[in-house]
Design brief:
Oligomer: single chain
Number of helices: 12
Largest sheet: none
Length: 279
């Protein structure tokens, strides 16, 4: 397995490898935000209110005199960590539902997909806002709200791929050899559709970051003074004319991180898709 992974990494295009390194660096920075932050992100100083970027504070300070660079680093841990948690739980749960619906079909599959259709009938962001508003806001409630609106995409994708994989020759051969249903589902079908699901998950990281930022911006996500990019943008917008860096700094960082994950997902999809490699 290790040899195959090393060979696949060696054959990966240079752009894919660079984007993979950039994504890993972003994750490392968010993980070690406490060690990398030059100041306490929650320490206020009335003498440093809305100070412009300088050597001591490269991104400036906010309306409470807090160092913006430190808050951005801690916000990365909140935004990216929450996005990964949402994708891990919603992606796993949705994919499992899609696998079961596509494999067993019949009444079981129909019931699971009707539930999926009901959830998908509502615009995802509007539903997330409604759920977060009912639950009362906060980081965990925002994560739960986004989970409830995200799993359906994985369920749909997993079901369609399972239906197609079930008709393949290798699955028919597994049936003839006497393999159990669970073995066929998790040993023969799941590994062959996992690449697409993982690629989709990578591309959804930026979507979840944007969703969490939107909820925080509206005041029903992460609560101030907790460091999170959407909440920081909302707070800094009030001082856009006199201190534009308070809103622009977290905005630029968030857009840059989202672009890296989106480009990495696109490059990974192109690398894993045989049709795209032939172009």
């Amino acid at each position: 397995m290790l040899r195959k992974a090393m060979l696949a990494a060696h054959k990966a295009p240079l752009l894919l490898r660079l984007l993979a390194v950039a994504s890993v660096l972003i994750l490392v920075v968010s993980l070690f935000a406490a060690q990398l932050a030059p100041y306490d992100p929650y320490a206020t100083d009335p003498q440093l209110i809305l100070q412009p970027p300088a050597a001591a504070h490269p991104c400036g300070t906010d309306n409470y005199g807090r160092d913006l660079l430190s808050r951005i680093l801690f916000g990365a841990r909140t935004s990216i960590g929450a996005a990964l948690l949402i994708i891990l739980i919603a992606g796993t749960g949705g994919s499992l539902i899609g696998l079961l619906a596509g494999f067993f079909r019949g009444r079981t599959g129909a019931l699971l997909m009707r539930i999926t259709d009901i959830v998908q009938a509502f615009p995802s962001l509007i539903l997330a806002i409604a759920v977060a508003g009912i639950l009362g806001g906060g980081l965990m409630n925002a994560i739960l709200a986004l989970m409830l609106t995200t799993w359906t995409q994985y369920a749909r994708l997993a079901r369609s791929m399972t239906l197609a994989a079930a008709e393949e020759t290798y699955v028919q051969a597994a049936w003839l050899s006497g393999c159990s249903r669970m073995r066929i589902l998790f040993v023969h079908i799941l590994p062959n559709i996992a690449g697409t699901l993982i690629t989709t998950a990578v591309m959804h990281i930026s979507t979840m970051m944007m969703g969490l930022a939107a909820l925080s911006y509206l005041g029903i996500g992460v609560k101030i003074p907790d460091a999170e990019w959407g909440a920081m943008i909302s707070e800094g917008q009030k001082y856009l004319r006199q201190a534009p860096w308070a809103a622009l700094a977290p905005s630029i960082v968030m857009i840059s991180v989202m672009m890296v994950f989106n480009l990495f997902g696109d490059a990974l999809r192109d690398h894993l898709d045989p049709k795209m490699r032939k172009l």
